Structure formats: structure tokens, C-alpha cells
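TA notes, week 10

Several of you asked for a full example with nothing omitted. So below is the full record: C-alpha cells for the whole chain, then the designed sequence directly under it. When grading your own attempts, check the secondary structure regions first.
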């Protein structure tokens, strides 16, 4: 039978959180208690994991270049401090996410990074966070605030500013019927980008901008479906909530017998490297993956060492990268 910290805690007569602190050699455990836990570990044959190595990085979007880039940068930021990132592809908020974390707890993980998974979902189950808190394992979120009752550091791109940059660029090119292809309702980043888009349009005197928002999945197919509806509304420009959606929008425009950017301009979001090499090269709002990953790495290092890190959300400014998918509105 596999021996884990549950069995060690039962034999030593202490909590699982106390066992976790002993395993990870953290302070705050009395000498007598520590000795009892060590004795129970020896009696049960529990193998102590290599301390201080594993940081779980939870993400659903392993095939998306942006998330792969962020995960790789996080690993690079953690490595100099003896911490190793373990990528865990899991559906957000579901059983798979909890199972990944539960199975890694006994391996001695020192922190968990939620990279746009359950932390992005409205009404997500907080059971996983409660389990981590009970076992004194710190966690942080990227691009998505946790539920109001969950207090933790969060590092996000400023979605409202991202929408402003995209709308401002298209407005300066003469576009007035600007549509938005966004992610599903209840996804925090998608909801914030929509609010930012509507606010940016309203500031420019464009009323009923919410009628020009189509919610779809963060996929090429989602972007293609959204643009079909937006073209029927007369949109001459599209703000997409991801680069993948933008690529789908370009395909959708072409399938309607139109051209990008001659007939319809398209702006993406994320700033993945592939956008530079598509046809036409994509104008996009680039997320600062390097700065996000660096700050996450610093914070996780501090948390793993038992130091405090400010809770709440820290916002990073995105950058508009202008390429060939946008042009002045066509004058017929």
C-alpha cells in the first residue's frame, strides 16, 4: 500500500498540514511534534521527497503558444532557485485539476500556479484552494482573479487597457462599426475584455457597442463563427480576444469572399510569435509574458521560502503591435 502524508499524520496524531511542514522543513513545528512525525515516517517507510523542487503549473491551454511560452518562462525563472516547474494540463475547476494537485501534494510540492484555469471561472469550486490552504501550500493565479473569498496573489494583463489599445487603433483608421469576438460568458478575462471594449467604444460616442459583441470559444473555430455574425452586422473591423480567435476571424472573412485588411481589419490578443508569420501578419495586443513570468517566479520563490507576498491582483500593461492585418476603413 502506498504511504502518504494522510497515513503519517494518523500515526503521529497530528494534522496533515503539520506533516507537510515537517516534510518541507518549514519552521513553526515544535521539536517534540517534529520527532513524532519523523518517527511515524520511518515506521511506515515513507520516502521524503526531494525538498523544495516541485512547483505545479496548472493550465488547460498547453497547445496555445502563449501559455506554453509563459510556462517555459516561469520554469526558467524558478530554476536558478532550485525550484522545478511541473506542467499539469487539466480542465479548469474539474476533478482532473483537483486530482493533479492531490497526487502532487505527497511529492512535496512547495507551491501551485494556476495559469488561466479555475481562477478564470465565475463560480468555480473553491475546494482545491481550501485543501492547499489547509496544508499550508501557497498558490498564485495568472490572468484571472480567484473567488472573492479566496485571498492570494494574482498577476494579470490589464484587459481593459488591451481593449482600449485595440479600439483606439481601429478608430484612428476610420472604423466606426467595430465588432468584438470574445470568449465565453463567465470567463473573467473575457468578461473584462468585453467591458473594456464597450467602455472604449462608448468614450468615442459609439452607442450600443454591446450589440457588436459575439461570445464564442477561444479557438480558431470560435473566431470564425463570431466573424460570420459580426459581418452581418456590418463590422468593418474585428477585435478578437485571442490570437487563435483572430486567425479564425481572418479565415471567416475570406470565406465570405472578403479580404483582410482591404475589406475588414482584424486585431488579435496575446502576441504569440506565430502571429508575425501568418498571412497577413497579425496586428495584435501583446501580453507581457516575460514580465508576468518573472514576477510570478519571484513571488513563488518567496512563498516557498515562507515569506509573505502581497495578496490581490497586480496588473501589467500590454503593448499594441501593428502589422498588416489592419488598414484604414475602405471608402466605396
Amino acid at each position: 500500500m502506498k504511504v502518504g502524508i494522510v497515513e503519517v499524520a494518523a500515526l503521529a496524531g497530528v494534522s496533515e498540514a503539520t506533516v507537510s511542514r515537517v516534510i518541507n522543513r518549514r519552521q513553526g513545528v515544535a521539536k517534540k511534534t517534529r520527532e513524532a512525525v519523523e518517527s511515524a515516517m520511518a515506521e511506515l517507510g515513507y520516502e521524503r521527497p526531494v525538498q523544495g523542487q516541485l512547483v505545479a503549473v496548472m493550465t488547460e491551454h498547453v497547445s496555445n503558444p502563449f501559455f506554453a511560452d509563459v510556462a517555459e518562462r516561469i520554469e526558467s525563472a524558478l530554476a536558478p532557485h532550485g525550484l522545478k516547474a511541473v506542467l499539469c494540463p487539466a480542465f479548469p475547476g474539474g476533478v482532473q485539476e483537483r486530482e493533479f494537485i492531490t497526487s502532487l501534494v505527497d511529492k512535496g510540492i512547495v507551491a501551485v500556479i494556476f495559469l488561466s484555469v479555475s481562477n478564470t471561472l465565475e463560480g468555480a469550486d473553491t475546494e482545491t484552494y481550501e485543501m492547499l490552504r489547509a496544508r499550508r501550500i501557497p498558490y498564485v493565479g495568472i490572468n484571472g482573479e480567484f473567488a472573492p473569498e479566496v485571498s492570494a496573489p494574482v498577476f494579470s494583463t490589464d484587459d481593459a487597457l488591451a481593449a482600449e489599445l485595440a479600439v483606439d487603433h481601429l478608430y484612428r483608421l476610420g472604423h466606426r462599426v467595430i465588432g468584438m469576438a470574445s470568449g465565453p460568458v463567465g470567463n473573467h478575462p473575457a468578461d473584462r475584455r468585453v467591458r473594456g471594449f464597450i467602455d472604449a467604444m462608448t468614450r468615442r460616442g459609439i452607442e450600443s457597442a454591446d450589440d457588436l459583441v459575439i461570445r464564442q470559444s477561444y479557438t480558431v473555430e470560435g473566431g470564425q463563427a463570431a466573424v460570420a455574425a459580426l459581418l452581418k452586422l456590418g463590422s468593418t473591423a474585428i477585435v478578437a480576444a485571442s490570437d487563435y480567435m483572430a486567425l479564425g476571424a481572418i479565415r471567416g472573412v475570406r470565406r465570405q469572399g472578403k479580404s483582410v485588411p482591404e475589406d475588414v481589419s482584424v486585431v488579435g490578443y496575446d502576441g504569440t510569435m506565430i502571429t508575425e508569420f501568418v498571412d497577413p501578419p497579425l496586428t495584435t495586443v501583446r501580453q507581457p509574458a516575460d514580465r508576468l513570468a518573472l514576477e510570478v517566479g519571484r513571488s513563488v520563490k518567496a512563498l516557498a521560502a515562507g515569506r509573505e507576498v502581497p495578496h490581490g491582483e497586480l496588473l501589467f500593461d500590454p503593448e499594441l503591435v501593428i502589422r498588416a492585418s489592419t488598414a484604414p476603413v475602405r471608402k466605396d
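The longest strand covers residues 54-59. Use that as a sanity check on your answer.
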